[in-house]
Design brief:
Structural class: mainly alpha
Oligomer: single chain
Distance between the termini: 25 Å
Mean pLDDT: 92
Order of helices and strands: HHHH
Shape: elongated
Number of helices: 4
Largest sheet: none
Strand content: under 5%
Radius of gyration: 15 Å
Helix content: over 70%
């Protein structure tokens, strides 16, 4: 996949998660906290604007891809009509915790990289 294709895929996935998290909240399945799932990519982008060390490229990881898929599946399951509220909350919370963990590992990895000139 080209660099553009990988970036496009990542951004469409982020937008999809944002829509799913909004639906999960609007359908009354989970609280407004689920919106953090949809905002994580955009919060990271804002942080990168403020903190140049976060602008460095991240390697693609199996962990990141797996958690992204888990996030999407969890939110789809959470908004499914047959999902009870307690189950929706559990599954959405587990996915959010995994997503926060993944982003945290990415930030730590970026901060541990040798200092280079970052635009």
């Amino acid at each position: 996949m080209s660099g553009f294709g990988a970036r496009f895929d990542m951004e469409t996935d982020a937008a999809f998660v944002a829509v799913l998290s909004l639906l999960a909240w609007q359908f009354g399945k989970v609280g407004a906290w689920v919106l953090l799932s949809g905002m994580m990519r955009y919060l990271f982008a804002v942080a990168a604007l403020l903190w140049p060390l976060l602008r460095r490229p991240l390697p693609s990881t199996y962990r990141g891809k797996t958690i992204a898929v888990f996030q999407m599946i969890a939110l789809i399951v959470a908004i499914a009509p047959m999902s009870r509220t307690s189950f929706a909350v559990t599954v959405a919370a587990a996915a959010l915790i995994a997503l926060i963990f993944s982003f945290s590992l990415d930030v730590v990895w970026l901060l541990r990289q040798p200092e280079t000139h970052v635009r």
